[in-house]
Recover the amino acids of this structure.
């Protein structure tokens, strides 16, 4: 059977692993920094540019390769480069694509460190950045200049679930010959396939749902052989933000249950979002699975599920939001997301604390906003834990 005939849940379990002569059933870990050659002549052939065979684990490692091949198969990409974190995946893509004098158009609601990477570091090297609201196609088109080399979208956005039209933006990128990258962290290939919708590259923080159990950091870039397999790989093997074999092995085990987990996260989040929408202490719920979400139709077209992240606003501003968070006994008060454990965060004073008030206003990060990454505990227990604080707001 060829990979292209298999479905996602099967690829997540069966692809990437070439069984060794030991006949192992589960994927082996190769914790080795370097690899041995048969002879001086063999060493010389492996060092020829483009030659196959392992040399050193900063370049390639069989466990990391297994993770890369599996994720590439699941995203429908020709090549994948695994990295030490999601941020080093973004860095590796940018270093491969951009040079001094180039311009980037980026969604204005991407992960905060991505904005810092552009605003504090890439500008030092003469790269220009423009930010646009992800859901406004016209804004993407209008922001493009002759020197634009990269469009960067995260959809659904964090924390308000704004949806970018992947096909629409891909058409603009193709017309102008610009690389279009989608951060697929919130949906994962189990719910959304950006490459099939026309994106050139998908980016992952594997730290989130690909692991899914809060154990390791990791990242990945998936796309064509030329861009990812050659240019991004070239930067990664030279600069060294490589994934460790141990982390790759943990992430392989994470991928095996990804489809199942994403379906369960999505089902629980939808039910919780509908429940929150009915609660009298809640004024607004941001979740693309709700009919009330302004881009529910678009999300239904380009995603096969709505994911596990909900944001909602309580009456009474910061004090009320903090009291709901502090009234929980089970939920984890942490800024991380994409875990089997439900997490709860106050974005205005944590993930979005370092941007200015006017930037927060523009991004819709109000003081009463709470973000939840819905985990896989019993939904009744999650509701009870939230209800305590929400009901207290009505007294
Ligand atoms: C966490 C995150 C990142 C960065 O990933 P790390 O693994 O923390 O480096 C990038 N994009 C999104 C959407 C994220 O949530």
């Amino acid at each position: 059977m060829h990979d292209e005939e298999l479905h996602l849940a099967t690829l997540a379990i069966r692809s990437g692993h070439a069984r060794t002569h030991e006949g192992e059933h589960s994927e082996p870990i190769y914790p080795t920094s370097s690899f041995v050659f048969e002879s001086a002549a063999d060493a010389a052939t492996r060092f020829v540019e483009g030659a196959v065979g392992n040399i050193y684990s900063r370049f390639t490692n069989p466990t990391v390769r297994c993770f890369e091949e599996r994720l590439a198969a699941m995203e429908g990409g020709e090549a994948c480069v695994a990295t030490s974190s999601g941020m080093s995946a973004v860095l590796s893509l940018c270093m491969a694509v951009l040079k001094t004098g180039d311009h980037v158009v980026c969604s204005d609601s991407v992960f905060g460190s991505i904005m810092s990477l552009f605003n504090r570091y890439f500008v030092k090297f003469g790269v220009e950045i423009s930010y646009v609201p992800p859901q406004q196609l016209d804004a993407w088109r209008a922001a493009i200049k002759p020197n634009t080399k990269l469009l960067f979208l995260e959809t659904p956005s964090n924390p308000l679930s704004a949806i970018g039209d992947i096909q629409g933006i891909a058409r603009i990128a193709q017309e102008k010959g610009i690389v279009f990258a989608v951060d697929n962290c919130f949906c994962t290939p189990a719910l959304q396939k950006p490459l099939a919708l026309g994106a050139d590259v998908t980016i992952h923080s594997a730290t989130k749902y690909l692991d899914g159990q809060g154990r390791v950091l990791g990242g990945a870039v998936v796309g064509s052989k030329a861009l990812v397999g050659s240019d991004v790989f070239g930067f990664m093997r030279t600069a060294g933000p490589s994934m460790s074999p141990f982390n790759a092995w943990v992430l392989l085990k994470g991928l095996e249950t990804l489809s199942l987990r994403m379906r369960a996260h999505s089902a629980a989040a939808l039910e919780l979002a509908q429940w929150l929408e009915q609660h009298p202490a809640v004024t607004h719920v941001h979740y693309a699975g709700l009919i009330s979400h302004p881009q529910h139709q678009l999300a239904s077209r380009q995603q096969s599920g709505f994911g596990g992240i909900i944001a909602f606003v309580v009456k009474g501003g910061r004090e009320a939001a903090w009291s709901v968070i502090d009234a929980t006994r089970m939920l984890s008060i942490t800024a991380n997301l994409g875990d089997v454990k439900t997490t709860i965060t106050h974005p205005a004073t944590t993930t979005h604390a370092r941007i200015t008030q006017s930037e927060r206003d523009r991004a819709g990060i109000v003081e009463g906003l709470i973000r939840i990454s819905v985990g896989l505990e019993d939904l009744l227990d999650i509701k009870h834990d939230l209800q305590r604080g929400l009901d207290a707001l009505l007294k």
